[in-house]
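[retry 2/3] Cupin: previous attempt timed out, resubmitting with same input.
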Amino acid sequence: MKLEVEEYQLSDDGVIPNSNLPVLVYRQVCTHENNSDWFESTFVKNGWTNNWRDTILSYDHFHSTTHEVLGVGQGAVRLRLGGRAGITVSVAAGDVIVLPAGVGHCSLPGQSGYEIVGGYPDGRSWDLLTGTEEERRTALSQIKAVPVPVTDPIDGVQGTLRNYWG
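[retry 2/3] Cupin: success.
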């Protein structure tokens, strides 16, 4: 499968660390009747587990212990990536976002009627950080220790992700 990929590089803003690895957005990966089921089974098949279905938190947060994949199962949503000085990305059913550890993300106000399927490489445990001064030192060292996944959440081993993240 040849994926249409957008890549976004987000720098540390002093609050949200972001990452040296780019955020990847895969457009219209699937158009199944139930995208959420397809995303979850595809993520699991490719080793991105510890899955969930919900919306995205409406405040800036990031994970220092794992990368994250977000598949839009239903509806559409506008997300802010990278913290207050970051970018806005609109995604719709069938799109996927792969977030490196440390990248801030949140849904913008007024977003509803959508469903996200999330997952983590090798089912890694996630933390929930907001960029407080107390979190920063530990978060920076933890982010550096998160390995690049062996598989892409959509196309598996030797997949698209490795072309962008090495």
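[retry 2/3] Cupin: Helices lie at 35-45, 133-145, 160-165.
[retry 2/3] clearing retry counter.
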